[in-house]
Design goal:
Largest sheet: 11 strands, mixed
Number of helices: 15
Order of helices and strands: HEHEHEEEHEHEEHEHEHHHHHHEEEHEEH
Number of strands: 15
Strand content: 5-15%
């Protein structure tokens, strides 16, 4: 099954040669009635930017890191091993988690090639955690891990009809993860169901002294774990949800919006209250009307209000820190990566259009390199802007003058500006499958957005809505893939929106 899947969706980058030995050991423990928990003996995959101290490579999709040796398992991998789960391999991803180019084929890397959604193999599968979402969609494994800086869990999850949990920044450790931005990076889970994804989250969250952001958890996490919060549709009675209509919903594809509104009606019929027009404060400053754009501030002539302004500086500095711990490699900086690409111009797309997957060459890497890692006044202004306006916008939307504190915001995650605002705030989101577009055959989801360390409420209500979906007999849930375009090998994939 793993071999067959790797030939179709391209989601598996490398298989772990030690997996069968580890699985046999886990089976022996189970027979001896030494069961570590719900993940004991369960296979999983992780994104190629999450380190494992074994025979697997950790390369972030780049040939530049092939052969490098990591110092230890990533914290999240070590936690899963301790829980008895079996690491089967690494999944494909968008190279350097989409930092290498501004115009590129989503889900492509030099080491893994093009990953493809089994719903429509010719279009954008979502990314950058593309393979992690596709592997779960194809039932290769029950759960996978991915990373997100801005959309890289939520986007591929909703485009492949699986559950994606993007945690609060600081709930899961980033130690051993190829970084993009210390301010926004987070490790999360994909699952066939909310329960599957939550079991994985329970195994990986926690305080890690190598990642000081995790110290903020304090007593904000449930003492018995998040699985204790899983619920059914009866939990929707009395729930209160906000709908940021002008902020996000007006930007959704009409067919998708129509389906999601019918799902909202179903949620209301189960006893929930949905309050419309709970807008993100100052959303015209934060939400690009033209689609996802992490350089929206610069588009408006204000780079000091742009997420990309600080991300490209963080990448320069944070990557250098990560690379300093690697051995058996000469790659120690963004400059070294750029130089490597120049030495391998075609396979690594050093110049525009040399590799069809990288239409703009390595302009993202060059933009980071040009900053020199300098955290100047524009950097700090941009960081303060995002870290003040985005959290305030979400928190204000969750506080209603009549209905009081709302339990979550319900948003259409194919509108990329939804997860962009959550990313800038460092706040959690969960997406669940909601339907399939008639024209593209690609899935879309319904997402719940909450406040900092608000995962408990999001999990409670995401699982309740999922139970309602399954009990309803409607099509507002995960559907079987149609494998449209099977045999087509286009690179780049079509950068398609649902209404295109």
């Amino acid at each position: 099954m793993l071999y067959k899947s790797s030939l179709s969706g391209g989601e598996i980058h490398k298989l772990n040669p030690d997996a069968l030995r580890i699985a046999k050991r886990a089976d022996a423990e189970r027979r001896a009635r030494r069961v570590r928990g719900p993940l004991h003996g369960i296979p999983f995959l992780v994104k190629d930017n999450i380190a494992s101290k074994d025979q697997l490579q950790t390369a972030a999709g780049s040939l530049a890191l092939v052969g490098s040796i990591v110092p230890r398992d990533a914290f999240v991998v070590a936690r899963l091993r301790k829980a008895g789960a079996v690491l089967m391999g690494k999944t494909t991803m968008s190279e350097w988690a989409d930092m290498r180019s501004t115009i590129y084929s989503e889900g492509y890397s030099a080491t893994g090639g093009q990953s493809r959604s089994s719903y429509n193999l010719t279009v954008n599968p979502g990314g950058s955690s593309s393979g992690s979402a596709i592997a779960v969609a194809n039932n290769v494994v029950p759960f996978t891990l991915g990373t997100e800086t801005d959309g890289s869990i939520i986007n591929p999850a909703e485009r492949n009809a699986v559950v994606g949990i993007k945690p609060t920044v600081g709930l899961t450790s980033r130690d051993g993860v190829v970084p993009e931005s210390i301010h926004q990076d987070t490790v999360g889970s994909f699952g066939r169901t909310v329960r599957d994804a939550v079991y994985a989250l329970d195994a990986i969250y926690g305080i890690d002294l190598r990642d000081h952001y995790t110290l903020d958890q304090g007593r904000r996490t449930p003492p018995e774990g998040y699985a204790a919060l899983l619920s059914n549709r009866t939990a929707l009675r009395g729930a209160k949800f906000g709908l940021p209509w002008q902020s996000f919903w007006v930007l959704a594809d009409p067919e998708q919006r129509s389906v999601l509104v019918r799902l909202l009606d179903l949620i209301e019929s189960a006893g929930a209250t949905i309050v419309n027009n709970t807008e993100i404060t100052d959303y015209p400053l934060l939400v690009s009307p033209e689609g996802w754009n992490w350089d929206f501030g610069s588009t408006r002539g204000r780079p000091n209000e742009s997420e990309y302004t600080y991300i490209k500086v963080d990448f320069y500095n944070n990557l250098q820190t990560y690379l300093s711990e690697l051995t058996n490699t000469t790659i120690k900086s963004v400059a070294d990566v750029v130089r490597f690409n120049n030495d391998h111009p075609y396979v690594e797309g050093a110049e525009p259009n040399l590799n069809p997957a990288f239409a703009s060459g390595q302009d993202g890497l060059l933009a980071s390199l040009a900053t020199g890692g300098h955290m100047n006044e524009t950097y700090w202004q941009a960081l303060r802007f995002s870290q003040s306006y985005a959290p305030k916008g979400i928190n204000d939307a969750l506080r209603h003058s009549t209905f009081g504190q709302l339990d979550a915001l319900l948003v259409p995650p194919d509108v990329g500006q939804t997860y962009q605002i959550a990313a800038q705030a460092g706040y959690p989101m969960i997406t669940i499958p909601a339907g399939v577009h008639s024209r593209s055959a690609m899935p879309f989801g319904l997402a719940l957005m909450g406040t900092r360390f608000g995962e408990a409420g999001l999990i409670k209500y995401a699982s309740a809505i999922e139970d309602l979906q399954m009990a309803s007999g409607t099509g507002y849930q995960r559907a079987r893939p149609r494998w449209l375009g099977l045999g087509v090998d286009n690179v780049p994939v079509d950068a398609q929106c649902f209404g295109c």
